[in-house]
């Protein structure tokens, strides 16, 4: 067994992982070194050194003409193997398609990854005006956006208190994310079972979500609807919330029957 060096310490691995996530968030348009350093709060020389090391291992690619970074072939190979165990799109997509058809809004499934949510799959609705806040691959911390809020609300009180005591969401996501405001939205979510994000990230861009549970009855995923404010008036909340809960329950049952890590 090799001794742990400074370059293999958890802090360096964490920084490398943050860079990989930031590159992934850039999608197929690529991300510059300076922008990646800003997004990960790293000094530019440190970010460049780590990015170069990841590229040497095949985890990243850098376009020679633009200098932009993209995910590399090694991640594709690993992802292809991991998809056989973790991909739930085949189970979720029919539910998303039906939810989008019934509501006209865009439907998404996000998964909890530690203290974050990551959007896994989506289905566009028929209504021509859409919210573009939520898209496949985007990540939010728990408590932010409808998926992050509904998952946080379904956690035990001690876990919620621990998370909020260690993180100032208002500092990064705005004054509507203070502990007091989050506590009110958590209470409202627990009362109805579904939550509403009333344009907290982008004005006029609304979302609603319901939690999807695994076999142990733990909140692992979130089913969301997103759209423009005019489509999420208060008089429509009950109807949309009821549909979300019904489809979230159906998806919970379907995923609990699926063999592999998704059921554990």
UniProtKB/TrEMBL annotation:
UniProt domain IclR-ED: residue ranges: 74-257
A Pfam family this chain is assigned to: HTH_IclR
Keyword Transcription: yes
Keyword Glycoprotein: no
Classification via SUPFAM superfamilies: GAF domain-like, Winged helix' DNA-binding domain
SMART domains assigned: HTH_ICLR
InterPro entries, per database record: GAF-like_dom_sf, HTH_MetabolicPath_Reg, Tscrpt_reg_IclR_C, Tscrpt_reg_IclR_N, WH-like_DNA-bd_sf, WH_DNA-bd_sf
Domain HTH iclR-type positions: 10-73
GO biological process: one example: negative regulation of DNA-templated transcription
PROSITE patterns referenced in this protein's UniProt entry, alphabetically: HTH_ICLR (PS51077), ICLR_ED (PS51078)
Keywords, sorted A to Z: DNA-binding, Glycerol metabolism, Transcription, Transcription regulation
MF terms in GO: DNA binding; DNA-binding transcription factor activity
Functional note: May be an activator protein for the gylABX operon.
PANTHER family in the record: HELIX-TURN-HELIX TRANSCRIPTIONAL REGULATOR, ICLR FAMILY, HTH-TYPE TRANSCRIPTIONAL REGULATOR RV1719
Name the record gives this protein: Glycerol operon regulatory protein
Species of provenance: Nocardia alba
């Amino acid at each position: 067994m090799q001794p742990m060096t400074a370059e293999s310490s958890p802090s360096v691995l964490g920084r490398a992982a943050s860079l990989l996530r930031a590159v992934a968030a850039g999608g197929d348009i690529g991300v510059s070194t300076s922008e990646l350093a800003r997004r990960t709060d790293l000094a530019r020389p440190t970010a460049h050194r780590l990015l170069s090391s990841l590229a040497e291992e095949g985890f990243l690619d850098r376009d020679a003409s633009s200098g932009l970074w993209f995910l590399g072939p090694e991640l594709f190979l690993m992802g292809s193997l991991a998809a056989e165990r973790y991909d739930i799109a085949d189970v979720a997509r029919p539910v998303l398609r039906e939810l989008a058809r019934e509501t006209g809004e865009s439907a998404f499934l996000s998964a909890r990854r530690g203290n974050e949510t990551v959007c896994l799959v989506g289905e566009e609705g028929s209504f021509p005006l859409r919210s573009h806040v939520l898209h496949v691959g985007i990540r939010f911390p728990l408590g932010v956006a409808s998926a992050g809020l509904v998952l946080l609300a379904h956690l035990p009180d001690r876990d919620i208190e621990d998370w909020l005591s260690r993180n100032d969401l208002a500092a990064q996501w705005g004054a509507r994310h203070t502990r007091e405001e989050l506590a009110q939205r958590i209470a409202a979510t627990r009362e109805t079972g579904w939550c509403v994000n009333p344009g907290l990230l982008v004005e006029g861009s609304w979302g609603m979500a319901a939690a999807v549970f695994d076999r142990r009855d733990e909140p692992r995923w979130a089913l969301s609807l997103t759209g423009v404010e005019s489509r999420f008036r208060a008089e429509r909340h009950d109807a949309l919330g009821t549909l979300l809960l019904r489809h979230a329950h159906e998806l919970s049952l379907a995923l609990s029957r699926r063999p592999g890590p998704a059921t554990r």
